[in-house]
Amino acid sequence: QVQLVESGGGSVQAGGSLRLTCTASGIIFTFYDLAWYRQAPGKQRELVARISAGHTTDYPDSVKGRFTISRDNPKNTVYLQMDNLKLEDTATYFCVVPTRNYWGQGTQVTVSS
Predict the structure, then answer these.
(1) Phi and psi of 75, rounded to 5°?
(2) pLDDT digits (tens, 9 = 90+) for 74-101
(3) What is the Cα–Cα distance from 21 to 24, expressed in whole angstroms?
(4) 21-58, pLDDT tens digit by residue?
(5) First vs last C-alpha separation in the chain
(6) d(Cα 76, Cα 41) in Å, to the nearest integer?
(7) 33/43 Cα distance (integer angstroms)
(8) Spatial separation of the C-alpha atoms in residues 91 and 45, rounded to whole Å
C-alpha cells in the first residue's frame, strides 16, 4: 500500500520561506518522476514543480526562481523549498507520483501580509 506523507506546511508572512517534505512508503521513489501540485480554494489544482527520475526539474513561470524541488532517493523523500512566498501561494500542497496517480493528503500553506 502506497502512502505519501507531506509535512512542513504552515503560516508565514509574505517574503518568507517554507520547506515541504514528502516521504513515501510502499513505493521506491528512485524509478519515478515526482511532482508537487497545489490547490487554492475555488481554483483548479496546478503543478508547481516536477523532478524527473534523472533529476531534471521543471517549474511554471508563477514559481520559477522562488521554488526548488529536490529529491533524496535513499530516503524516499522529495522536498519543495519555497522562498519569497507571496499571498497567491496560499494553497494546499500535494506530493504526487504522476505516472501512478498517487497523491498525498496535502499540507496547508498560508501566506499573510
Answers:
(1) -90, 0
(2) 999 999 999 999 999 999 999 999 999 9
(3) 10
(4) 999 999 999 999 999 999 999 999 999 999 999 999 99
(5) 40
(6) 30
(7) 25
(8) 9
